[in-house]
């Protein structure tokens, strides 16, 4: 090999070594994303109000889509759920019918119920236990 | 009336000798074949043994339990290893032979602040691979869930664990 060839080989090896160093130093942690999916509130795009409305819309009509509720909350961390809980506030709710219909609208007003009350009424005890286990602070 | 003679012509001496030689050669060949076969048996047995051991080894390697790594960038697991082991045992108790109370499985994931990522991984690793009966194949936690839970229960587990343990 010529002197020039040796020099190019050395440069090539150096470039590859530096490239590997940069790759291993900056690659994301093995088996997970950059953010912990179970805790924290690092997602700047997370909109607690939007999630709260989605939950209310799912639960406000007669008949509950439990799978939809689970789907909405799948990647919501306890810290984010705390925000959702506050954003939800209290909405009028007919616990007997499981919706917002008030058949005695002329005489009485439906009670205002928070997210905990809505979920407790809409879900079975076992289903509610799943969410209570995930969000022990609020449920 | 002429009768047909049934007596055969006497064999020539040379043909008798040839026959004897042939018979001897045949016996030699048979003996040789038996000897060869006998000498091959140990080789076949050894080969089968090596293949068997190799197959068993590869199978053991392929079916080994692969621990999922805890991620150091996330907060430390909020349960200890012995706690994770007792939770894994509780889950196995509820799911092992017959599917017991689903709430028992859910409660194994409970924590005052909610379990974190590394805690789920710790339980998964503590569970390892288990089988309930001799004939059953060993399965890890997600495989057990996948095998025993309904689709809706699997969805509940996925939501509860924020997708960390997806059956």
SSE blueprint:
The complex is a heterodimer of chains A (139) and B (167).
Chain A: H1 3-26, H2 48-60, H3 66-73, H4 78-88, E1 90-92, E2 112-114, H5 115-122, H6 125-134
Antiparallel strand pairs in A: 1-2
Helix pairs in contact in A: 2-3, 2-4
Chain B: H1 13-62, H2 81-95, H3 102-107, H4 117-127, H5 141-148, H6 151-160
Helix pairs in contact in B: 2-4
Describe the structure.
The complex is a heterodimer of chains A (139) and B (167). Chain A has 139 residues and is mainly α. Helix content of chain A is 53%, strand content 4%. Chain A is built from six helices and two strands. Chain A is rod-shaped. The mean pLDDT of chain A is 86. In chain B, α2 packs across α4. Helix content of chain B is 60%, strand content 0%. The longest helix of chain B has 50 residues, at 13-62. Chain B has 167 residues and is mainly α. Chain B starts with 12 loop residues before the first helix and ends in a 7-residue tail after the last helix. Chain B is rod-shaped. The interface between A and B is medium-sized, with 28 and 31 residues.
């Amino acid at each position: 090999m010529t002197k020039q060839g040796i020099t190019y080989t050395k440069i090539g090896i150096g470039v590859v070594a530096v490239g590997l160093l940069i790759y291993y130093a900056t690659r994301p942690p093995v088996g997970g994303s950059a953010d912990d999916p179970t805790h924290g509130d690092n997602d700047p795009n997370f909109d607690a109000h939007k999630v709260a409305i989605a939950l209310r819309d799912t639960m406000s009509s007669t008949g509950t889509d439990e799978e939809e509720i689970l789907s909405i909350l799948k990647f919501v961390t306890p810290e984010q759920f705390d925000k959702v809980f506050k954003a939800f506030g209290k909405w009028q709710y007919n616990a007997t019918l499981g919706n917002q219909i008030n058949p005695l609208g002329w005489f009485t007003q439906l009670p205002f119920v928070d997210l905990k009350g809505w979920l407790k009424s809409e879900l079975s005890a076992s289903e509610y236990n799943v969410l209570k286990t995930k969000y022990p602070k609020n449920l | 009336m002429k009768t047909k003679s049934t007596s055969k012509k006497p064999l020539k001496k040379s043909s008798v000798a040839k026959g004897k030689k042939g018979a001897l050669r045949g016996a030699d060949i048979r003996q040789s074949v038996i000897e060869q076969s006998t000498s091959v048996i140990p080789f076949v047995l050894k080969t089968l043994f090596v293949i068997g051991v190799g197959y068993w080894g590869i199978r053991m390697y392929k079916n080994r339990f692969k621990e999922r790594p805890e991620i150091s960038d996330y907060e430390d697991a909020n349960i200890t290893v012995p706690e994770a082991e007792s939770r894994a045992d509780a889950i196995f108790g509820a799911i092992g032979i017959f599917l017991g109370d689903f709430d028992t499985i859910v409660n194994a994931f409970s924590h005052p602040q909610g379990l974190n990522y590394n805690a789920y991984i710790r339980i998964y690793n503590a569970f390892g691979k288990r089988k309930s009966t001799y004939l059953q194949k060993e399965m890890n936690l997600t495989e057990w869930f996948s095998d025993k839970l309904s689709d809706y229960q699997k969805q509940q587990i996925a939501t509860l664990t924020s997708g960390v343990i997806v059956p």
